[in-house]
What does this fold into?
Amino acid sequence: EVQLAESGGTLVQAGGSLRLSCAASGFETDDYAIGWFRQAPGKEREAVSCISSSSGYTFYSRSVEGRFTISGDNARNAWDLQMSDLKPEDTAVYYCAADDEAGYGCRVLGEQGTSTGFAFWGQGTQVSVSS
It folds into this structure.
């Protein structure tokens, strides 16, 4: 059973940096995608970034491109989201998710805008950015 656990969320000032981590386990193969999503109060969940573990394909939403970086590797079973130049609008609960499509879930997200391939989800970690 795939299990995901996020950590690193906290309160930070605007302009600051923060690193979120996703501890992942239970994969039957090394081919999967890890995605970071977020949901702010009163808003729909939105995709932030994803990466395919074997191909290295990455996707970033326009709102975070250039400020956030996704990284990680199978050896560590840990996937990070480095966030810099944080803005109050980045405030949200951030979720780590994994696909069940051998990593293609990230490419589908990036090219078609759909996250249906992400079948496994963590509990989320709160990021609050003060102005």
Notes: The mean pLDDT is 94.
